[in-house]
Write a structure and sequence with these properties.
about 425 residues; mainly alpha; Growth Hormone, Chain: A; 2 domains
Length: about 425
């Protein structure tokens, strides 16, 4: 006989599927899934294209740095402006501009006008608009999903990222081999255009605010100060989470952007097999997503233990990766790396959402993104330099060491987390 718990899980899944059956949510989900697949295609193609032009691991990882700079520099300010703009039109405009920018890369290459500076400028511009899309999407979801379905709605929407990472890199590897890395970018441009079309039927019931209020220097500065003060003084446990997430990102981001160089110099594989390595990471993330969806959510301080275990696991996998040169073994090792990444991100995000009042979420997430993106950029640059100056193996050992150290440090955060969590929480207004 089926237990009451199993029947409850079935009912929960049915309720989640009902969220997809609403017309507006289905259009938004479809557009996001298409654009994420396109992103997965171009992520491999862009890095591969730069590496084929330069032969430099450091210059290849600069693509990741340029994609990280906009969230690092502008992330805390994006939500302030997007809160006062219509979300549907903002998302359509962002998709259209990104489609145009990506189309420019192969067009300029064919015309013989593309150099590294032009390429880097276009990638940076694309990242600026991409950075603004996330807050717009997050703000649009509550305008479509009922309040009681927001958790399920966000979970279903986040599944598009796994779909894109699972299908995009594998498709990219095949397309690179057939049409060349620069022409693969046409596919991503078409995906963004299709995503924009999917958002045309959306009906978002929102009220618009005065944009002038958001552009006041004193207002922006005051909002940012309030968010930082809240993290440091009101919820120091969030500062611990930021340190753990940032250090974890420092290592894993460098590993992902070094994969083309590692594949050529260490594994001697082609673009098709490289796509499979990227997809194996997404398989691991999918496993983590399914586990988190069915597992009862752990208490806040127990999440530090899960994050610590994930970081140590990722470090051990990367270290083993540096020691073996068999493709099948490397492919299998990518799965635990993906599982670790898939566990850390949702746990950190859920913790921030639980600990932060709704009126401070945008600012707190903005500060979080700035910190983690800064460390991601450092990791891409540092480990790219190590690979060029010494060897890919040295770089991989460095990444593994950072991940292991992150796990040990995060485990040390469990005790202060318990102490601070047991202390009375002040109201949101006290953070002002």
């Amino acid at each position: 006989m089926r237990t009451e718990g199993a029947r409850t899980a079935d009912r929960s899944m049915i309720e989640s599927l009902r969220a997809l059956l609403t017309k507006d949510f289905a259009w938004l989900w479809a557009g996001q899934a298409i654009s994420q697949i396109g992103d997965g295609v171009s992520k491999v193609a862009l890095v591969w294209f730069v590496y084929s032009l330069t032969g430099s691991a450091l210059q290849s990882t600069l693509i990741g740095v340029l994609e990280t700079l906009p969230p690092l520099l502008l992330g805390p300010f994006a939500g302030v402006f997007l809160d006062r703009l219509p979300k549907r039109e903002s998302m359509i405009l962002i998709d259209v501009v990104r489609a145009i920018l990506l189309t420019l890369i192969p067009l300029l290459h064919v015309a013989g006008m593309l150099n590294l500076m032009w390429l880097y400028a276009i990638v940076f511009g694309n990242a600026v608009f991409g950075m603004a899309f996330g807050p717009a999407l997050n703000a649009a979801i509550p305008l479509i999903v009922e309040p009681g379905q927001l958790t399920r709605g966000n979970a279903i929407m986040q599944s598009t990222l796994t779909i894109g990472q699972l299908l995009g890199p594998a498709a990219s590897g095949l397309l690179i081999a057939v049409i060349g890395p620069q022409n693969v970018l046409y596919v991503n441009a078409a995906a963004f255009a299709a995503s924009a079309v999917c958002k045309i039927p959306l009906r978002l019931h929102e009220r618009h605010h005065d944009l002038k209020e958001a552009t006041s220097v004193s207002t922006i500065a005051g909002d940012l100060r309030q968010g930082i003060r809240f993290i440091v003084r009101e919820r120091p446990v969030l500062l611990l989470l930021m340190v753990s997430a940032g250090l974890f990102t420092l290592g894993t981001t460098g590993f992902v952007y070094l994969l083309p160089m590692i594949g050529e110099r260490l594994l001697h594989i082609d673009s098709v097999r490289m796509g499979w390595l990227w997809s194996a990471i997404s398989v691991g993330m999918l496993v983590a997503t399914i586990w988190l969806a069915w597992k009862e959510q752990p208490a806040l301080c127990k999440r530090f233990f899960v994050i610590a275990a994930s970081a140590v696991t990722a470090g051990a996998a990367v270290w083993t990766f540096s020691m073996t040169h068999m493709f099948v073994a490397e492919l299998l090792l990518m799965v635990p790396i993906g599982i670790s990444s898939g566990l850390v991100t949702p746990l950190v995000a859920a913790s921030v959402q639980e600990e932060t009042p709704q009126d401070l979420l945008g600012r707190v997430f903005g500060v979080f993104n700035t910190g983690t993106m800064g460390l991601a950029m450092l990791g891409m640059t540092l480990f790219g330099w190590l690979a060029d100056a010494f060897s890919p193996t040295v770089s991989l050992v460095g990444i593994a060491s950072v991940a292991a150290a992150t796990g040990v440090l995060t485990a040390c955060f469990i005790r202060p987390c318990r102490r601070w969590s047991s202390s009375p929480k002040r109201s949101a207004g006290s953070a002002a």
